[in-house]
């Protein structure tokens, strides 16, 4: 009797020890992973990666961004004071100064929950025309885009992404 209980215990223990190995093998053969898929970023900087300009002279550069499908971000001039506008900045001491920025016009957008309230947003791809002045030399600039992304149901916390640009002042 004791021998049969021990045999059952050994069988259960063996099964429990093999289950993770079996699951791992099954995952390897199916190509599936247990990790959750990471979300793509709400906004991605597209281009340019490098610009050459005359040192000391203001030059307009179009910086291109893409918003993930199903999301929108407030324009630079949102219609309500409590909404966070999209803004571009360049850190001081980078050898490049942002003289001004021309933001695109947003598009009117109404949430399904309140069609009477219109928001002013960006969707898809958009470009900001940055008027910059650079000193002579090669400068790796990390311009910053601050925005708040939303879908039809909720808004995410505000976020700032960097747009790395190699600016060559000739």
Explain what the structure shows.
The protein is α+β, with helices and mostly antiparallel strands and 170 residues long. It folds into two domains: 1-38; 43-169, Immunoglobulin-like, CATH 2.60.40.1250. It is 17% helix and 46% strand. The chain is built from one helix and twelve strands. It has one helix spanning 2-30, and strands at residues 43-47, 50-53, 59-67, 72-74, 87-89, 96-102, 107-111, 114-122, 125-134, 137-147, 149-150, 159-169. Strands 1-3-9-6 form a four-stranded antiparallel beta sheet, with no helix packed on it. A four-stranded mixed beta sheet has the order 2-12-10-5, with no helix packed on it. A four-stranded antiparallel beta sheet has the order 7-8-4-11, with no helix packed on it. It starts with a helix and ends with a strand.
Keywords:
1 helix, elongated, Immunoglobulin-like, 2 domains, 170 residues, 4-stranded mixed β-sheet, alpha+beta, single chain
Present the secondary structure layout.
Blueprint: H1 2-30, E1 43-47, E2 50-53, E3 59-67, E4 72-74, E5 87-89, E6 96-102, E7 107-111, E8 114-122, E9 125-134, E10 137-147, E11 149-150, E12 159-169
Parallel strand pairs: 2-12
Antiparallel strand pairs: 1-3, 3-9, 4-8, 4-11, 5-10, 6-9, 7-8, 10-12
Q: Rg, please?
A: 26 Å
End-to-end Cα distance, whole Å, is 91 Å
For the record, the CATH architecture of the largest domain stands as: Sandwich
> So how many helices?
1
Order of helices and strands: HEEEEEEEEEEEE
Largest sheet: 4 strands, antiparallel
Structural class: alpha+beta
Give the count of structural domains.
2
Find the CATH superfamily of the largest domain: Thiol:disulfide interchange protein DsbD, N-terminal domain
Tally of extended strands? 12
Q: What is the highest CATH level, the class of the largest domain?
A: Mainly Beta
At CATH level 3, the topology of the largest domain is Immunoglobulin-like
Helix content class = 10-25%
């Amino acid at each position: 009797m004791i021998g049969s209980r021990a045999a059952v215990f050994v069988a259960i223990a063996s099964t429990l020890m093999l289950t993770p190995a079996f699951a791992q093998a099954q995952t390897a053969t199916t190509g599936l992973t247990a990790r959750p898929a990471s979300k793509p970023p709400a906004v991605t900087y597209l281009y340019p990666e490098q610009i050459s300009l005359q040192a000391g002279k203001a030059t307009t550069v179009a910086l291109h961004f893409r918003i993930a499908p199903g999301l929108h971000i407030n324009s630079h001039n949102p219609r309500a004071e409590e909404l966070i506008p999209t803004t571009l900045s360049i850190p001081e001491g980078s050898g490049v100064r942002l003289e001004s920025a021309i933001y695109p016009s947003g598009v009117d957008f109404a949430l399904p929950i309140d069609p009477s309230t219109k928001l002013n947003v960006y969707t898809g791809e958009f470009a900001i025309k940055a008027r910059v002045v650079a000193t002579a030399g090669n400068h790796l600039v990390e311009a910053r885009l601050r925005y708040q992304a939303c879908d039809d149901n909720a808004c995410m916390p505000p976020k700032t992404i960097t747009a790395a640009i190699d600016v060559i002042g000739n």
